[in-house]
Design brief:
By secondary structure, this protein is α/β, with parallel strands linked by helices. Helices cover 36% and strands 21% of the residues. The protein starts with 8 loop residues before the first strand and ends in a 6-residue tail after the last helix.
């Protein structure tokens, strides 16, 4: 391919590139291109594009002095090159350039421009004050594997209804498991969109995918559930997340979306006085949004229950907070099986703390009852056996 770098060049990061790819794949429809200033104002006034919900303008305003100098000098009709991490990513036909206020932009996305908000901080660093609109063309395209997998799965089970969940599963806990089962119980096919973030974390996307895949393959009818990666870019943050989840899920071919009652986007927008929520702003998107119950473990019921049906009150209920469970794992502690399935805990700890024990075989044979046979054991085996000892109650 002939290099296009003789054209004027804008530099974008992978997060911006991923969103441009979503639009090119038709996954953010009704959005088809970068919006003009007039189109942006109309979206902010109505929350609609061609009669369908979209929460804020879809624009490109990359940060950097060189980027801003180039955008401010562009003329209508020029063709420019978008460069991502040194690679030619796309060409864009310039229709218009215009100035924006980055603080107003982040407020439309997050509902605030408070600099202490982590999302606001990250987005302000990568947002410039000049935007440009127009149609663009990706220089390297490949079939969307997620679309293909969903289509094949729908044919395989002859799905009349396809439901979706969007989750980070960081980590996958018992509350997630119940939500997955509840959703699967009333649909033919379930698509789990697993969020793939740009910020680094102790439990990487690959580990979370492997843990979810293990649960799927061993504890669910695996022909009726598939996992699809979803790049968790800045546009999915804040109180508009549910609207965008619904748009993406519908464009992937799902006709239902299940969200938890404790979903942050739902709570931020819920109006108790008028019994309305962010869901009431989803217009023209052909998808049914269901709000699932919040699940807790009740010490009196001695099982996982819905808060709507348990009469025993919060003083008897254990909630499932991913951040707190993650803290236990990051500290190297084995979470109780009531919080997270022991097989998942054992897998995650063995990956987070590889080669943790100096002499694993000796520790294993000194700690657990064995058949006397010399066998090799992994750290994952060790954690599984340790969990069994935690459940022993005859001396307590």
């Amino acid at each position: 391919m002939t290099s296009l770098r003789k054209n004027k060049t804008l530099y974008i990061d992978k997060e911006a590139a991923s969103v441009l790819e979503l639009v090119a794949d038709g996954l953010l429809a009704p959005v088809r291109k970068l919006m003009s200033e007039a189109e942006s104002k109309l979206v902010l006034e109505t929350g609609l594009i061609n009669g369908k919900s979209f929460p804020f303008p879809f624009i490109l305003a990359p940060s950097g002095k060189k980027n801003e100098e180039i955008i401010s000098s562009l003329k209508v009709g020029e063709e420019i090159l978008l460069l991502c991490e040194g690679e030619e990513f796309a060409t864009l036909h310039v229709e218009e350039t215009f100035q924006i206020d980055p603080h107003v932009r982040v407020k439309h996305i997050y509902g605030t421009d408070d600099s202490t908000h982590p999302g606001v901080q990250a987005t302000m660093k990568r947002l410039g004050s000049w935007a440009l609109s127009g149609e663009y063309k990706l220089l390297k395209t490949k079939p969307n594997k997620g679309k293909i997998d969903i289509l094949n799965a729908k044919k395989r089970v002859d799905a009349k209804h396809t439901s979706s969940l969007v989750m980070a599963a960081n980590p996958l806990h018992r509350g997630h498991e119940r939500l997955i089962r509840q959703t699967l119980d009333s649909t033919d096919l379930l698509v789990i969109f697993l969020l793939k973030p740009y910020a680094s974390s102790n439990i990487t996307y690959d580990l979370r995918y492997e843990a979810l895949e293990y649960y799927l393959n061993n504890f669910l009818p695996k022909n009726r559930v598939i996992i699809v990666p979803l790049e968790n870019s800045y546009i999915f943050a804040g109180y508009n997340e549910i609207i965008l989840d619904a748009i993406v899920a519908n464009n992937y071919g799902c006709d239902r979306l299940t969200i938890g009652r404790n979903h942050a986007g739902l709570g931020m927008f819920y109006d108790c006085n008028s019994n309305k929520s962010i869901i009431d702003r989803v217009i023209g998107i052909d998808i049914e949004i269901e709000i699932a119950s919040e699940y807790v473990y009740c010490n009196q019921c001695t099982t996982l229950v819905s808060k709507n049906t348990c009469p025993h009150g919060q003083h008897n209920q254990i909630s499932y907070h991913s951040d707190s469970i993650l803290q236990l794992l990051e500290a190297g502690l084995l979470p109780p099986a009531v919080l997270i399935r022991k097989e998942i805990s054992a897998f995650l700890l063995s990956k987070l703390y590889p080669d943790r024990f100096k002499n694993l075989e000796k520790l294993y044979y000194d700690t657990f009852a064995t058949k006397g046979l010399l066998e090799e054991h992994t750290e994952r085996d060790f954690y599984l056996e340790l969990m069994k000892l935690y459940k022993t109650s005859s001396l307590t």
